Amino acid sequence: MRRNFIIWMGLAFLMHSSSLLCQSSLPPVGQWRDHLPYKTVIGLTQGENNIFCATPFSVFSLDLSEYSITRYSKTNGLHATGVRAIEFDEQTQKLLIAYTNSDIDILYRNDVYHVPDIKRANLQADKTIYSIYTFGGNFYLSSGLGIIIIDGEKYEVKDTWRIGNGGNYVKVNGITVSNGFYYAATEEGLKSTAVSNNDPANFNNWQQESGLNGLPPGNCKAVLSLPGTILSLIGDSLFIRNGNNWDLLYNDIAWSINRVSFSDNRVLVCQQKNQTGRIAVLDMTGAVSEYIQDGISVPADVLHYQGNYWIADPLYSLLKYANGQAVSFRPASPDSVATGQLLSKDQVFLAAAGTVNEQWEPRQNTNGLFRLADGDWTNYNSSFSPVLDSVKDIIAVANDPVDGSIWAGSFGGGLLHIPKDQSLELFKQNSPIQPANFDRSSYRVAGLAFDHDHNLWMANDGASRNLLVKKNDGNWVSFTAPFSLTENAAAGIIIDDSGQKWMISPKGNGLICFDDNHSIDNPVDDRWKLFRFGAGNGNLPSNNVLSILLDKSGFIWVGTDDGMAVIQCPQQVFSSPGCEAVLPIVQQGNFAGYLFKGEEVRSMAVDGADRKWVATSQGVFLISADGEKLIEHFTEENSALLSNDVRQVCIDNISGEVFLGTVKGICSFRGTATTGGSTNSNVLVFPNPVPPGYAGTIAIRGLVEHAVVKITELDGRLVYQTRALGGQAIWDGKDYRGKKISTGVYLVLVSDDSRQEKLATKIVFIAR
User: Domains plus CATH for the chain?
Assistant: First the structure.
């Protein structure tokens, strides 16, 4: 019987910049948090009563004294995303993290020491770090360059040993020390040199062990120290050294070996046969004492610590195995990255994890759809229900404004409805949704939007009638655009203040505007317009439209593969002389140019102050409401952004949190603007009280839109005055002279456009 138990331990954060900062579930204004996948664990190490776990994206640890989980990522102190290997040094109490880009962080107590030397090295060679070994307070990195030694005290590269035949680079899979010798597992076989050797960087000082005394020649995949001897992995066979000879310790021709480790006098072998995995536990003679198979998938790593087996599993994260039972420890997280549509409303976040390629072809992505609410993630994919196994490439989402249920569009699998009771409803062959004309098995819903009458509009890509609506009475109506469109391509939809539908048509077709004249069932009065490149055709900067946005002024912003355009007169589209897009000009220093000219504008979102957040291949930008000023430009180099390759952006209306879907995972930034209300209701200040030494931003939210906010002392003396960004004002805790204010109670007075000033709340400052 297979037993799998998932223990959701919540999110515990550690870390500050060069030090590790603590981070709450919702970060303060101006701070970041990650939403990385922690489902797959690829490596383990132990120390300080913790199990440290490497995922393909980052690291987390499990404190065995209280079974609490701590996450380590770029948003709270690390320097990169994408982990290759980790190792804890018991002697120095330091954890080394090696990244896929060859960058290195060393964690010691609450500090992070960055070692970028290998990453920055301008070498036309494989700089991948394959494994880590600790010895004498230093870290020995097995890499495509050879063996790289990191000084554990100075946090720098101490030496590099290029030990390939003839002094060439050679891939080193692992290294160990035994009986006064270094042993290196390389693609050229197992090699050795004395620890006392004064010049181990000289390849001539290394002896070939493979092909001699019973050890087969060829790629040596691993080498381990055992009491008084060593173990090497050649192919899928383990060999142990007996004196000067090598004996076969273990192999099973039906099973491949993915990893081998030695822990608590046990040889632990991670094995795989097709999609089945197991762990063989061997004694020093090679006898199998037990197989661990129930409750695991295909193990990537294993260790034995404090009487339990700890297993790195690609499906169940970190597993604790004891007495035939596997228990899973995993930080609450999405199952994967998400580069489909993002949506956040009233602090409920949705992420479509599907994708299409640049030619708008399906990728057969089965990761599904993710939902974050109250700190808990729900992953809607085949692990949630087998029904979802056929619902691939979910790229569009919509939140039902009436009942809060979820609607999701699959690029091939139709339309998915997830009501509050978590039952599933799938619309495909059983509905008016049509298959693509060129692929009759593919039911593509690539865009979703609700109108003010609670009708659900959808883009039915590839179908003859590629615009479809499911009315609030349950009936369906479909429409055919009166244009020649390549492959009838249809994607993202928005609905403007007049009820007009704007739909992207990929494959270079442009942007469609459709007006049903508030009579969905009457096709006679329908009106259509196609916006394309050039004056007289709509004046878009390109026919390749990637994104569209409705802002608070009612303008339509259009993102293309060659910049941005704004349609400022959408209500006049079907009037004479009509309406064309304008190309915003942005001022940058002494230069001015078309907004995002030459750049892919992949996704856009509007915040509470009508400013635009723009996702590009060069990071994410914040521009002013009119598009004439650049306010922020976040990159992975100057911020905690996970990757410059940003695919999607959305903003939560209540918190102002900006969610960013990148190729390396989801992260979010707590923005300064929220959506304003009609009254000053439920005004909140965070943090309040303001603790000693606090140097961050103080947020005052729940305000009427663009309110004037005054901070005063109890006697009415003005300390600071500002205007809200949407429904939120921010303050740095200083008076109008730039001086930090003193301990005390301060009043927050708010006035709207009527200039009526009211006491909204109080702020308590504790200076020391």
Answer: 4-22+37-161+252-330 (2.120.10), 684-765 (2.60.40.3110)
Q: What is the per-residue pLDDT for 1? A: 28
- Within 10 angstroms of residue 217's Cβ, the number of other Cβ atoms is 14
Judged against a pLDDT cut of 80, whether residue 3 lies above it is answered with no
pLDDT at site 232: 98
Distance, CA of 523 to CA of 478 (rounded, Å): 10
Question: For 558-583, what is each residue's pLDDT tens digit?
Answer: 999 999 999 999 999 999 889 999 99
Residues 196-211: tens digit of each pLDDT: 999 999 999 999 999 9
At 231, give phi and psi (nearest 5°).
Answer: -125, 135
d(CA 101, CA 119): 6
Q: Alpha-carbon distance 504 to 244, whole Å?
A: 71
pLDDT reported for residue 72: 97
Rounded to whole angstroms, the Cα distance separating 47 from 105 reads 17
Q: What is the DSSP string of 262-278?
A: EETTEEEEEEEETTEEE
| DSSP track, 577-635 | S----B--EEEETTEEEETTTTS---EEEE-TTS-EEEEETTEEEEE-TTS--EEEEE-
Give the angle subtended at the CA of 470 by the CAs of 570 and 572, to the nearest 5°: 10
Q: Is the pLDDT of residue 62 over 70?
A: yes
C-alpha dihedral (464, 467, 470, 471), degrees to nearest 10: -120
In the numeric block, the tokens 């490596």 are attached to: 43
Q: What is the pLDDT at residue 532?
A: 98
> Which residues lie below 8 Å from residue 300, measured CB to CB, with a gap of 6+?
41, 42, 43, 258, 259, 270, 312, 313, 314
Separation between Cα atoms, residue 554 and residue 608, nearest integer Å = 14
Give 31's contacts (C-beta < 8 A, 6+ positions apart).
23, 669, 670, 696
Strand boundaries in 109-214, DSSP class E: 111-115, 129-135, 138-143, 146-151, 156-161, 172-178, 181-186, 189-194, 207-208
What's the mean pLDDT in 741-759? 82
How far is it, in rounded angstroms, from Cα 547 to Cα 651?
15
Contacts of 138 (CB under 8 A, 6+ apart): 149, 150, 151, 152, 158
This prediction's pTM: 0.92
For 750: left if phi > 0, alpha if psi spans -120 to 50, otherwise beta; the answer is beta
Strands across the sheet containing 207-208: 172-178, 181-186, 189-194, 207-208
How many residues would you count in the chain?
Answer: 768
Q: Across residues 439-451, what is the average pLDDT? A: 98
pLDDT of residue 758: 77
Q: Sort strands 4-8 and 325-330 into parallel, antiparallel or unpaired.
A: parallel
Report the candidate in 355, 381, 383 with the shortest Cα–Cα distance to residue 369: 381
Give the whole-angstrom CA distance, residue 640 versus residue 33.
8
Contacts with 194 (C-beta within 8 Å, 6 or more apart), sequence order? 180, 181, 182
Q: What is the pLDDT of residue 757?
A: 65
Q: Give SS3 for 747.
A: strand
How far apart are the C-alpha atoms of 410 and 499, rounded to whole Å? 25
Amino acid letter, 539: N
Query: Of 574, 362, 83, 116, whose CA–CA distance to 72 is shortest?
Result: 83
Q: Which has the higher per-residue pLDDT, 673 or 557?
A: 557
Nearest to 36 by CA among 643, 665, 644, 669: 665
DSSP helix/strand/coil, 496:
coil
**Degrees to nearest 5, angle at CA 42 with 39 and 43:** 125
Distance CA 283, CA 263 (A): 11
Query: For residue 533, what pLDDT is reported?
Result: 98
Taking Cα atoms as reference points, which of 277, 368, 286 lies closest to residue 326?
A: 277
Mean per-residue pLDDT for 628-637?
A: 95
